[in-house]
Amino acid sequence: MSWSQLFFYVFAVLAVIMSLMVVTRRKAIHSAIFLILAFICFAATYIVMNAELLAAIQVLVYAGGVVGLIIFVIMLVKAEEDEVRQTHGQWIIAAFIALILVVEVAFVFLGNLVQRTGNLAGKMAQAGGNTEAVGLVLYTKYLFPFEVASVLLLAAMIGAIVLAKYKLER
Amino acid sequence: MNVTVPMPNLSLVVPEILMVILACGLLLVDLFIPKDRKRVVGYIALAGVVVVGVVTAAFWGKMAQPATTFSGTFVLDRFALFFKEVFLFTTGITILISLKYLEIEKVSLGEYYALMLFCTLGMMIMVSGADLIVIYLGIETMALSVYVLAGFMKFDHKCTEAALKYFLLGVFISGILLYGITLIYAATGSTQLAQVAAVIKEKGLAKNPLLVLAMFMLAAGLGLEIAMAPFHFWAPDVYEGAPTPITAFISVAPKAAAFAALVRIFYHGIQLLEPQWQILLWIICAVTMTIGNVTALMQQNVKRMLAYSSVAHAGYILLGVLAANQVGVQGIAFYFFAYAFMNMGAFGLVIYLRRENIVGDDIDDFKGLAQTHPLLAVIMVVFLLSLAGIPPTAGFVGKFLLFAAAIKAGFYWLVALAALNSVVALFYYFRIAKAMYMQSPEPLPQLSPGRGLVLALVVVGVFTLFFGIYPQPLMSLAKDTAHTFMMFLS
Amino acid sequence: MKDAYWPLILVLLLAVGFGVVAVLMSTLLGPKKPDPIKLSPYECGVDPVGDARMPFFVHYYVVALLFLIFDIEVVFTYPWAVYFKKLGLFGLLEMVVFIAVFLAIFIYVWGRGALEWE
């Protein structure tokens, strides 16, 4: 086993443990903290797989931004309600669906159903690295989706302001 | 090493570019318009939509062949143009019927119109997407705007609840859709529809389980906006809670956009999976129209009734998708224009009945309308006849085309079921007519519609009748649409 | 895996190790003579009153949301920046269009007063 494989498995196992902590903690704020750790572990596995840009996005947007939002939401709701207990049996359904997903992923990889598009690592090295490789397709082939994304974010921003700002109309 | 970026053919995206400029401009202009004069924002939006509509229509003659740009991620063909006109028409009518309604509801935010334009832009991108990523981004732009519009009256609890339900279900389904797209990428190594189709053909992947799973997920993802079973249960709550002009809008435009995307993906991307998706859509079609019509029978609220009726109509339109022939696409295209006329009209009537303290969406609000406002009652009857698919209305012609396409493709049982459903539908449409003509009116405050609403009702009413009696112009446009679209296949 | 990440792992280990060692050393070596003032959260300053978990203003949320959206915008500029030289003038125009839309967002947000504290 090479070093990179070792690191991959260490961080993958850590990510699974952190994710389990997220769903088993009683206090929402603790779940949020473990979510940050889980995201950082994901980012580490991305680095092992040579996807540095994705790792950076994972830390910046998810661990930084999205969890920040989640924490704000937790702070917005009443303080007495922060201790959450599972009182219904939905976890059985969730566990079932998760099991199906695991079986599906195993099936996909063992069944060799995935179309392998050539030597990805080689292509990336040719472009000069992962970030450059993303730039190569994002700003040439996927130029249109890139520009549409800005419009999508604009619509999201208007929505956020219209719905969350209380005093706009009054 | 310098990369040469292929210069995209920007002339094909002129309508979209105009729309972005219009929407952003409107957003900024709105900052300087005082609260009591937001009507002006609506007028600007309407004028802009008309301009974009004319510019889009000017492409029609040039687009006998489909043209792609942006490395094949964006396609402009007559199919896309036709649907873009449906969206722009619907948006225009929605703006007209909103002007007065917003004043009654005391909504004084100009963002309302800007969001509607962004929603239209999203749909325009959606129907022109030749790449699943573009289609997804279009869907998201549309959906995010629609969620906010559905919850625009944020001090009304029913409205907020409706928007929240819509939003939660929408983001969940959006995740499923995205997962379906990644599965397609995994199985074929591309997200571009033409390449997906080529790889499936070349490597004989038609029975690949990943692709079949992806097909289910794409159907689910688009099925939410289409409001087809089993993803229809949000529709009644959202239709009832949302501002009525937005209800009218949601019932037509996003449904048309999702159908267009579904047809493009299923016909141009995974057409070799036809045996599989035919089984899936057959079941969905049968269930959707039956559930829609039977549940509509039991509704007392007109907005809810029309919600279930729109579910049923999604079922009829699925007949055209199933048929997978030229008449089917022609039928879908024609039906959406007809559906835009009659459904916008029916919801317009509900807005007409909106008075202080009365929402106007209960069947009892229609009591005796024939005595107090005979002309209004006649127009409503036209819309109801069209929705029920009775000549001489546009709805009849559309339904006829869809049924003909399905018969041509050999779906006899399904057409029989659809015909049976149309009979069931007569009962609940007739209930409104009965309330208008056979019951005496209750003393109610005077109606005071805006001029915009009257204009909108006249336009859609005239069109419903005109294209019912003389469908030829619209029919030949729909035929050209279907022709170039199916040509792509062979 | 690239060799370039060994220093990163070293720094990570050093950082964690320093924290652990510092805490351990102070608990092991430090004298323990507690008194009420030493045990209070702030030795100088006002004693905290009530629960730290009190409800927030929704305005914080709006600010966080604005942050997130602009954060995503910044993410798009990373691959552009490393690839900028090869993209040339056209690449610049691409980004100008992208940023122009964000400029519209910014003007709108500002003009709407979403950045003002209510």
Number of helices of chain B: 19
The backbone outline of chain B, from C-alpha atoms, is: globular
Shape of chain C: flat
> How far do the termini of chain B sit from each other?
40 Å
Largest sheet of chain C: none
Strand content of chain B: under 5%
Describe the structure.
The complex is a heterotrimer of chains A (about 170), B (about 500) and C (about 120). With about 170 residues, chain A is an all-alpha fold. Chain A has a domain at about 1-80: NADH-ubiquinone/plastoquinone oxidoreductase chain 6, subunit NuoJ (Four Helix Bundle (Hemerythrin (Met), subunit A), Up-down Bundle), CATH 1.20.120.1200. Helix content of chain A is about 75%, strand content about 0%. The longest helix of chain A has 25 residues, at about 50-75. Chain B is mostly helical and about 500 residues long. Chain B has one domain (about 10-485). Chain B contains 19 helices and two strands. Chain B has helices at about 15-30, 40-60, 80-105, 110-130, 130-150, 155-190, 195-205, 210-225, 235-240, 245-270, 275-295, 300-325, 325-350, 370, 375-390, 395-410, 410-440, 450-470, 470-485, and strands at about 65-70, 75. In chain B, a hairpin with a 4-residue loop joins β1 (about 65-70) and β2 (about 75). Chain B starts with 13 loop residues before the first helix and ends with a helix. The interface between B and C is small, with 10 and 11 residues.
